[in-house]
Design brief:
Number of helices: 1
Strand content: 25-35%
Distance between the termini: 69 Å
Structural class: alpha+beta
Helix content: 25-40%
Order of helices and strands: HEEEEEEEEE
Strand order of the largest sheet: 3-2-1-5-6
Shape: rod-shaped
Largest sheet: 5 strands, antiparallel
């Protein structure tokens, strides 16, 4: 038979386990947070790029000029009067003037800059073709 004092953990053992768990969480949480904001930025760049491509396709389909604009705070991007694309909390877009796509696929406007988590991407719209090139820094 076993004695009563041999079962379970002591308070000291539990405190050591909790201290080690807190240390691991303290080291891991900041890394996890930086990974989340980096992923938000990548998602923002991909979403804005997809929206620009969609606007060009819409112009080609409809035969009319299609404009892409950004809200004043840089947190929402929209095609014409459509419902805006909401960007993740840590991401915002800079745009000097709306980007427009013509029925032949060509474009007007400036580069689109996507900022977030200390990173920056420039999405260039080729005027002659409306095709996109993304540069990251």
């Amino acid at each position: 038979m076993s004695e009563i004092g041999e079962k379970g953990f002591t308070l000291l053992e539990m405190l050591v386990v909790l201290a080690v768990a807190a240390l691991i969480a303290g080291i891991g949480f900041p890394r996890l947070q930086s990974q989340i904001t980096a992923q938000e930025w990548r998602t923002g760049v991909a979403s804005v790029t997809a929206l620009l491509r969609s606007a060009r396709a819409q112009a080609l389909r409809s035969g009319a000029v299609t404009l892409v604009s950004v809200s004043g705070d840089g947190r929402r991007v929209r095609i014409g009067d459509a419902r805006p694309l909401e960007l993740p909390a840590s991401v915002f877009v800079e745009l000097a003037q709306p980007v427009g796509f013509y029925a032949d696929g060509s474009a007007i406007g400036s580069d689109v800059i996507v900022n977030g988590s200390g990173r920056r991407a420039r999405i260039s719209v080729a005027p002659a073709t409306g095709l996109l090139t993304t540069w990251t820094a």
